[in-house]
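ENCODED BACKBONE
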Amino acid sequence: MIEMNQAMNRHRTPRNRSRRGITLIEMLVVLTIIALFAALVAPKMLSKGDTARVTAARAQINAFGTALGAYKLDTGLYPSNELGLQGLRTRPQGLTQWQGPYLPQDIPVDPWGHPYVYKYPGEHGDEPDIISYGADGQPGGEGIMADIVSWKAQ
C-alpha cells in the first residue's frame, strides 16, 4: 500500500508544479493592462506639469512686479532696459536711494529655462513689460507655447 501511495504522489507532482508558475498568456494580459493604464494616465499627468510651469511663470512675473514697485518707491524710477531685472539684485552706479536687493535670490530663468524679457518703458502702460515666451521661447503661440505677460491677468 505504501508503494501505491508513492506511485500516486509521483504522478501528481508534475501537474502541481505546472500550476504554480505563471503562463505566458497571463503575463501578456498583465502587460497589456499596464500598457493601457499608462496610455490613459500618462497624458493627463504630463498636462499637469505644463499647467504648473505656466502657474510658476505667472508667480515669478508677479514677484518681479512687486519688487519693481519697491524699487520705484525707493529710487523714483524703474530700472533701465540696459540694467533690466538685474537692477533688483545689484546697486546701479550713481543711485544712492537704492535700498535693495529687492529679490532674495538671483534672477531666475522661466520654468522652460529661457530668460525673462524686460522692457522699460513698456508698451502696455507706465510699468515695465515682463514676458516669458512660454515653452517654445518664441513670441506668440497658443497653449503652453503662449506668452505669459505682466500686463494681463491670466
